[in-house]
Amino acid sequence: MVPKSLHKKAEDPSCRVIVFLGGVDTGKTTLVWELAAELSKSYTVGVVDSDIGQSHLGPPTTVGWGIVPPDAGGWEDVEVRGIYFVGALSPQGHLLPTVVGTKLLCDEARSLCDKVLVDTTGLIWGDVGRILKSTKVDVLDPDLVVGMQKGRELEPILNLWKGMLRPQVLKFQTSPEVRSKTWEMRYTYREEQFRRYFQDARLISIRWREVGIYHLSPERLAESGDRQKGRIVSLRDRKGKDRALGAVYEVDPRGVLTVWTPLGDDVEIGGVLFGEVWLPEGILS
Fold this sequence. Notes:
By secondary structure, this protein is of the alpha/beta class. It is 27% helix and 29% strand. A hairpin with a 3-residue loop joins strand 11 and strand 12. The longest helix is centred in the middle third of the chain and has 18 residues. The radius of gyration is 20 Å and the shape is elongated.
């Protein structure tokens, strides 16, 4: 249930971008959905999902966004409008692409929507957590930050803006009804998300010497072909947009990269970004 104070703030015409912060298992994503579902009855509402390890919009390893239909019953009813490939399951060690991807997709959503809600990861601890959340808020420039916490663990981050005119900050305590997820539950969820994403995948061939190769030198790619099998990549079009994920099937050192992907044959590939995640065994069997 959406708190009245949050609903009132979100309804204000001047409140267009809302960022949700909190640790793991604090109910952030549930609150994002409930507020988006309520607002979608009167506004065009976009949601940017930057929780790259437990994504609801777009596959794991990506930031994704979509517009919530007024009759949506759940995340599965939201069409993904765009993704940005981070290539990892945690922002730790990948702060820059996480922040950049969230900014780019938030800008895209803002251009099409009345309201934009941004969900984030549960990484809030230590210097890494503070840097990630503070820089994300800096670049997004939201009108409102919503903090969800079990005790006072989020205060070191929320206090960063206590002397500022913007963003406004609302704090809520996690409901005792929020269930904690085990590592096994999170792994199983990611595996199922990958399975759904690749269920209609097909093999395509890319002449990798003729496109941009990111995060892996062409020389190393040619030398380490067998070790790349199953590695998740993003296929970027000629305009620089991530269009779909792929999983490496085979690398021919003479210049052909074969990948499993659901990408349609109407997209001309301009670049391949190599991530740091390998697809779980059995997904493509």
